[in-house]
Amino acid sequence: MIVGSYAAIGDSFTEGMGDELPDGTPRGWADLVALGLAAAHAAAGGSGFGYANFAIRGRLLGPIVAEQLDPAIALRPELLTINGGGNDIMRPKVSVASTADRLVAAAERATAAGIRVALVSGADPTRHLPLGPLIKARGDALAVAVRERLARTDIAFVDNWSDARLTTLDNWSVDRLHLNARGHARVAANVLAGLGVEVPPAVHAPHAPGDDVARPRTAEYWRQYVLPWIGRRLTGRSSGDGRQPKRPTLQPVELPTEL
Questions:
Q1: 50 phi and psi, to 5 degrees?
Q2: What domains does the chain contain, in order, with CATH numbers?
Q3: How far apart are CA 116 and CA 111, in angstroms?
């Protein structure tokens, strides 16, 4: 797929949390996909590739669709990736069928505007999380439901949730909930492959932490990550409260010289 512009909507997964640049800015798989798409566009003789990213951490699917979809469509990108539902399936109650319906409806709204769409599922962190089996069952069901609904459409589906390689701890940051640089690079490769685009060398993240990354012991992990997360859920707060999209307009993508 050769396109000249790309936009992404979603939550922390698409924002790039866990793959921070030295200045603290999240990079992530969508930025790497933009890099791969820009390289393919340039190789085909194109110029002026544009990339926007509206994703904000902590967002449920409802706010993603309500706050991000229309601004993304208004940019008229040639490609839009949609991710959402990961925070929904971690709530006490969720309708998997309704979540799948809303994801596909959002994708169909964009395709009706003449935009190519790919639905991108999050990776599966549940081997390393409290209540992991419950969340995994919901994630498995959501992947199946989305795939079934998309069977009647031309919308692409990149199912990272079912990628067994992404379930291992070396792909996850210290909080065990967000992918690290290696995990985001793996997702980017999955998305580009799903779009039929060559994965350039720069997509692979050589600075990704390995298995020796310092990880807190169980009690410290709960204190630093799990209890604050529960506290936000109980008080209706989100880690993304007050945040703005990191890239709300189509901006140029700078290609590394090795490309």
A1: -120, 140
A2: 5-252 (3.40.50.1110)
A3: 6
Q: Are 142 and 102 in contact (CB under 8 A)?
A: no
Q: Listing from the earlier edge strand, what are the strands of the sheet with 50-53?
A: 156-158, 116-120, 79-82, 5-9, 50-53, 247-252
Per-residue pLDDT of 180-203, as tens digits, reads: 999 999 999 999 999 999 887 766
Q: Which is higher by pLDDT, 238 or 56?
A: 56
The candidate with the shortest Cα–Cα distance to 121, out of 101, 141, 143, is 143
User: Helices 29-43 and 181-194 sit at what angle, rounded to 10 degrees?
Assistant: 40
Report DSSP state, residue 49: -
CB atoms inside a 10 Å sphere around CB 200: 22
Work out the mean pLDDT of the chain and round it to a whole number: 88
Q: Within 10 Å of residue 43's Cβ, how many Cβ atoms?
A: 12
Rounded to an integer, what is the distance from CA 242 to the centroid of its chain?
A: 20
Tokens of 152: 């009647």
Instruction: Name the pTM for this structure.
Output: 0.88
Residue 174 and residue 213 in contact, taking contact as beta carbons nearer than 8 Å: yes
Q: Which two tokens stand for residue 137?
A: 């069952």
- The answer to whether residues 9 and 67 touch, using CB atoms and an 8 Å cutoff, is no
Number of Cβ within 10 Å of residue 108's Cβ equals 15
Instruction: Give the integer Cα–Cα distance in Å for 250 and 71.
Output: 11
Residue 130, class by beta-carbon neighbours within 10 Å (0-12 exposed, 13-18 middle, 19+ buried)?
A: middle
